[in-house]
Design brief:
Radius of gyration: 22 Å
Strand content: 35-45%
CATH topology of the largest domain: Jelly Rolls
Structural class: alpha+beta
CATH class of the largest domain: Mainly Beta
CATH superfamily of the largest domain: Galactose-binding lectin
CATH architecture of the largest domain: Sandwich
Order of helices and strands: EHEHHEHHEHEHHEEEEEEEEEE
Distance between the termini: 41 Å
């Protein structure tokens, strides 16, 4: 059985792009081999690289102007072909295309500075890899902190990304003190394909007094693109309340989501938001109408 899902073949000059690609693939559950992670000073390159390619299910070959002046990408691709490991071309510059790559289906990252162009190319990579093979279960957004690839993009808020509530359980959570009409937002810059999932689950704490009236919604663009807003039942005080809202109700099924949001439903400042255990889940039943589970 392969130890890695993806070996990324690239020029060192393209490292910034490669690190971003690795991070985005790891969010989907893919096990990535990257030289800076697994090679140390003194390693003999050829034997180590050949072993890593043999131990991988795919090679993602980053083609660029930089790679055309380095022998490594071409050598690694030839070796992968010789041992039967599929090669997926990723193209950063059109003038780096050779005839063989141009004649094949490849992921076009030539407009990668545009968020939506990057997103389309990234999901082409996922299609070639086979998303269901990589994303093996539920997708965590926040547990003991934001998961890799997710960023805090809250607005009109003072946030503590990790704090604890003394409720006897020592729960780790995200806290946000909101200004009027402020909100909590977590962004995944390359987009999350919601096709494998059915529900969005999270827990909220009502503080000492409770009474918070919140709504949850998602965005299918980095900026606008707001999907359906779902109002949540008011929070009781002193306890964590778990919620499960169907992606159908959020108008976010079978699409790509860039941002998840919570805000006060009526703009009032009714105290801070405490948020924990945020997941996209595959089969969990929705509690319906933003009502708590149970």
């Amino acid at each position: 059985m392969a130890r890695f899902d993806v070996f990324i073949s690239h020029s060192a000059a393209d490292k910034d792009f490669v690190r971003r690609l690795r991070t985005d693939l790891e969010v989907y559950g893919w096990r990535i081999w990257l030289d800076e992670t697994y090679l140390t000073i003194g390693d003999r390159l050829s034997p180590m690289l050949e072993r890593a390619i043999r131990d991988s299910r795919f090679v993602v070959a980053v083609r660029s102007r930089n790679s055309t002046t380095s022998p490594w990408v071409e050598q690694e691709c030839r070796f992968a072909a010789s041992v039967g490991v599929p090669v997926i071309p990723v193209v950063l510059d059109r003038d780096s295309l050779d005839e063989d790559t141009a004649a094949r289906f490849y992921a076009d990252f030539t407009r990668r500075d545009d968020q939506h162009a990057y997103h389309r190319a990234f999901h082409d990579v996922l299609k070639m890899l086979g998303t269901t093979s990589g994303q093996r279960g539920d997708l965590c957004v926040y547990s003991k902190g934001l998961s890799i690839g997710w960023l805090n993009s809250s607005w009109d808020a003072r946030c503590a990304e990790r704090c604890r509530i003394d409720d006897g359980e020592g729960s780790c959570c995200f806290r946000a003190d909101l200004h009027p009409f402020g909100g909590v937002a977590f962004v995944f810059r390359s987009g999350i394909d919601t096709a494998p999932f059915s529900c969005f689950r999270f827990s909220l704490h009502g503080g000492e007094t409770g009474g918070h009236k919140l709504k949850v919604f998602m965005n299918d663009r980095i900026g606008n693109g707001m999907r359906n807003q779902v109002s949540l039942d008011p929070l009781p005080g002193g306890i964590w309340t778990p919620f499960s809202v169907s992606l159908v109700e959020l108008d976010s099924e079978q699409t790509v989501i860039f941002k998840v949001n919570w805000s006060h439903a009526d703009g009032d400042l009714s105290g801070p938001i405490h948020l924990a255990d945020v997941w996209f889940t595959r089969n969990a039943a929705s509690s319906g109408k933003g009502a708590p589970i149970g």
